Amino acid sequence: MAGGPGADLHGMTQPPHDPAPGERPSGERPQEEPWRAPGEPEAQPPPYPGAYGGQGPYGGVPEHGAPPDRGGDRRPPGAADLASRWARLGAGIVDSVLISLVMLPIWWTVVDWSRVADPAPNAPVADRDRLLANLAAIAIAFVYYWLMHLRFGQTLGKMLLRIRVVRADDGGAIDAGQAAGRSAFYTVLGGVCGCIGLLDIAWILWDERKQALHDKAARTVVVKAGPGTPNPYARR
């Protein structure tokens, strides 16, 4: 018989009917979409990392917690961006004159010029006075170059000649260690040994990126800083 026990058992052993694509079993509620106000666009997936114009790979947060660049796009300075050798020489002369003017009252106070001009035989006083004057000059020059480069990327001479110190790898502002390293190289080493100071400055004459030895030690370059050029120190 069609309705016998065998038919029932046969029907119970049949696999359940799979709904066709788009067909929903009875009793199942459709998945509700998130509510949004009339006219509100659909939610979009989050943008890829760095889509907000940041310099780092994490959506605008640079690596190692460094602050974002403050003077436009960071990029390695090219040959057209580098300051001329004459501009660097002019800035160095201006800074040397300024430091000498600051040192004049110290020299007059510390050094007994009568003993320097006409020292007594075997008198170490004149040598001691000259040493103190040299140490004072080195200390003042170091602090001047360090703080000015750290804060502005420029000394007064560089401001006058419109040039600026930046990182060689990406054109960003230098940090305290770089500012101290380059300043120590040409004030301390240059003050202790004049030949080192001369070689340091002369290196820009043949270097491809017009770097002095103190630039190479601190990984910096000197670039043009005219109107319209990016200034990574603008918000320090």
Automatic annotation (TrEMBL):
Its main location: membrane. It is a multi-pass membrane protein. Residues 1-79 are annotated as: Disordered. One of its GO terms (cellular component) is plasma membrane. The chain crosses the membrane at residues 89-111, 131-152, 184-206. Residues 83-218 form the RDD domain. Residues 25-35, 66-76 have a biased composition (Basic and acidic residues). It is found in: Cell membrane. Keywords: Cell membrane, Membrane, Transmembrane, Transmembrane helix. InterPro entries: Pra-immunoreactive, RDD. This is RDD domain-containing protein. It comes from Actinomadura rubrobrunea.
